[in-house]
Design goal:
The complex is a heterodimer of chains A (334) and B (323).
Chain A lengths: L11 H25 L9 H16 L4 H17 L2 H21 L4 H12 L1 H6 L2 H21 L4 H17 L4 H18 L4 H14 L5 H17 L4 H12 L1 H5 L2 H21 L4 H13 L3 H14 L4 H16 L1
Helix pairs in contact in A: 1-2, 2-4, 3-4, 4-5, 5-8, 7-8, 9-10, 10-12, 11-12, 14-15, 15-16, 16-17
Chain B lengths: L9 H17 L10 H14 L8 H10 L1 E2 L4 E2 L9 H13 L8 H9 L18 H13 L8 H10 L17 H13 L8 H12 L20 H12 L7 H10 L18 H13 L16 H8 L4
Antiparallel strand pairs in B: 1-2
Classes of the chains: A mainly alpha (334), B mainly alpha (323).
Chain lengths: 334, 323
């Protein structure tokens, strides 16, 4: 199983404890699923309400039990129809709090994230929650994902949740769309500045930037290239900045440039790579980028020499380098 | 290629898979995977099929169990008998029935019609009636429909458009448009494009960038990770390799080093494969290890199809023109 070392299988008292815990968890889940088979009739009687606590405990134990989350949604919707608005509001907050507890212990549980988003996003739910309370909750929602990303800056569930919540917020406040995108870009930039190797943050920069900036300007591209250069000068061996760099040079703004401007730009980037390679001759991604730039500049022969170095340095990917060499020949002919 | 390498301990792995059935019945400690047991059955049976030993488990007992997860009211499968129907498990159910050539046991028209009802106007798919959107579900939908020969009931062009919207700056794909690339999602998206016969909808440059991102998943230990700066894991032998296979660039990684890594994750005493060397085996990683080795041409194993995740004889059966 994921991450469990061989030979660490517990024995003796420890094994007994683990088996007991497993049995208790399995029993909780069995009871909760059993309760689900009951037809829901309003008002929910006291005996149901008492037994219903088991669902919460089962989900805290294993938030991957997707059917139990669905069960909670059914119960919640039923009570929305009948209970007072105050009760519904407090139930709604309790549901959100349950997902917080589940996610703190199991940050990668898909169904817990889904349940949380449903509470914030679903149109039927929104009909039963006062709009100010809902808006306030959605606005403060990014704090949860900020906390999750503080604990693990690469949790893609947390990142995806931020995007989804932002869409909900934009649907409520369409006039604030550009401001929301700018705020998100500022958050992402903070994450990158904390850690240049945070690949997730670079990815989100690539998504947000075109929404916030006028990409057609050359100034934009130059500034962005300066920014990414700082990153790979600091940490030449992390992939994020290099992938980002390649994307910038292949993107629409670079393609729209006049030929001589584009050539000058590529030559500038080539110079930056060479400067870095003088200090760090083994920086593989700098060499890969250099080969790519030489190919774009139609300097196939020089590219081939770089590819020779790469193949020697990085033999695992020699299939890729052979392919690149094929491109050099195309480049000669061109 | 395979001759120079150590032989797989097929007997041990078969015994390990067969032993799992008893274990799931007696061990409460497996509670955390109980909700997706039907997928566990698919991984177990596929492992056996790859080793050409599907017959060692009793087909009737298994089919009884599989059908106990089928909800005829909505024509969909759930992850276990007491669970709710969900597209993830409808795919597992359909794949198992395809392996046994028993697709007639379900109402294919209704299964696919209900999947079609999960498709959104933007082309994406929800996993069930609660509306979670994820490109994993696009793959499940397209594959179920392909196996059941009813792709025409889905809006395939819209599904393709949505998948293409999920392609990122690095060429990879994420769970929704704008989400970070992840090798598992890459497999789902490339698989979807493959099943939709739409691989050419990616530009040559995008395909090249994606294949480069995929081959950069190989780490010095030989194993593959699922995202940059993450640990290696045997399951990516499948997600990454099958994607490279569909892109025509399996040779961009070092097969020998990957085979050696998978070999070090093999439990040659009790059978099965773990996520990485030194860890305990499980059925999920056992399937992905064998599937990866099959893609790399291991002669002890049957061939697996990179998009259908079924042995090629089954794929041939479900895709051949009907009489």
């Amino acid at each position: 199983m994921h991450g469990r070392r061989k030979g660490t299988r517990p024995s003796g008292v420890e094994l007994q404890e683990e088996l007991q815990q497993g049995a208790a968890a399995a029993e909780l889940i069995r009871k909760a699923l059993q309760l689900r088979k009951q037809t829901l009739i309003y008002p929910l009687d006291t005996s149901f309400r008492e037994k219903y606590l088991v669902v919460e405990r089962a989900l805290e134990t294993n938030p991957d039990e997707y059917t139990l989350w669905a069960f909670r949604r059914e119960v919640f919707l039923l009570r929305c129809e009948h209970d007072s608005p105050e009760t519904v509001l407090s139930l709604w907050k309790e549901e959100l709090f349950l997902t917080t507890r589940a996610l703190q212990r199991h940050p990668k549980a898909y169904p817990a994230w889904q349940h949380r988003l449903w509470l914030l996003e679903d149109a039927e739910v929104a009909n039963h929650i006062p709009s100010e309370a809902r808006l306030e909750a959605i606005k403060s929602e990014q704090k949860l994902s900020q906390y999750m990303l503080f604990k693990d800056g690469r949790n893609f569930h947390g990142w995806a949740h931020r995007m989804r919540v932002k869409s909900v917020l934009i649907s409520v406040l369409p006039e604030h769309e550009s401001q929301l995108e700018r705020e998100e870009l500022a958050f992402v930039e903070e994450k990158i500045n904390d850690d240049f190797s945070n690949y997730s943050a670079w990815h989100h920069r690539s998504v947000l930037l075109p929404k916030v900036h006028d990409q057609s300007s050359e100034v934009f591209l130059t500034e962005e290239l300066d920014y990414v250069r700082q990153a790979f000068y600091t940490e030449p061996n992390v992939q994020s900045a290099w992938f980002y760099h390649r994307w910038l040079l292949a993107g629409a703004p670079a393609r729209r440039m006049k030929a001589h401007v584009q050539t000058r730009l590529l030559e500038d980037e080539l110079m930056a790579c060479n400067e870095l390679l003088e200090i760090e001759p083994e920086a593989k991604y700098a060499l890969q980028t250099k080969a790519q730039l030489l190919l774009q500049l139609k300097r196939g022969m020089e590219a081939e020499a770089v590819i020779d170095d790469l193949e020697r340095m990085d033999p695992m990917r020699k299939g890729y380098y052979r392919y690149l060499r094929g491109q050099c020949h195309i480049s000669y002919q061109a | 290629m395979a001759s120079s390498r150590e032989q797989l301990r097929i007997d041990k792995h078969v015994a390990y898979i067969v032993g799992l059935e008893k274990k799931t019945k007696t061990t409460d400690a497996l509670y955390f995977t109980d909700h997706k047991r039907l997928s566990g059955v698919y991984w177990a049976l596929s492992s056996l099929a790859l080793m050409r030993k599907l017959h060692v488990l009793p087909q009737d007992t298994i089919l009884d169990y599989v059908l106990s997860c089928y909800h005829s009211d909505v024509a969909a499968f759930s992850g276990n008998t007491d669970q709710d129907p969900h597209l993830l498990y409808t795919l597992s159910g359909v794949q198992i029935l395809a392996m046994y050539d028993k697709l007639h046991l379900i109402d294919a028209d209704r299964v696919v019609a209900n999947i079609a009802a999960l498709q959104r106007p933007d082309g994406s798919f929800a996993g069930d009636k609660w509306g979670e959107i994820d490109t994993r579900f696009t793959y499940c939908a397209l594959l179920c429909a392909a196996i059941l020969r009813r792709s025409h009931l889905l809006d395939v062009p819209a599904a393709v458009r949505y998948v293409l919207r999920c392609q990122n700056f690095d060429g990879g794909f994420g769970c929704i448009a704008g989400a970070e690339s992840h090798a598992g999602q890459v497999f789902c998206c490339v698989g979807s494009l493959y099943l939709a016969d739409a691989m050419d909808e990616m530009t040559r440059e995008d395909r090249e960038r994606l294949a480069l991102w995929l081959c950069e998943r190989q780490l010095p230990c030989g194993g593959l990770n699922g995202r940059p700066d993450k640990l290696e894991d045997v399951c990516y032998s499948w997600w990454v390799l099958s994607s490279l296979k569909m892109l025509g660039h399996v040779d961009w990684i070092d097969a020998d080093k990957l085979i050696a890594f998978i070999g070090r994750s093999e439990d040659d005493v009790d059978g099965g494969f773990a996520d990485r060397p030194g860890d305990m085996s499980d059925v999920f990683h056992t399937f992905f290890a064998l599937a990866g080795l099959s893609l790399l041409g291991n002669k002890q194993l049957a061939d697996i199809h990179p998009a259908y995740a079924l042995t090629t004889d089954v794929v041939q059966r479900v895709t051949e023109p009907s009489a």
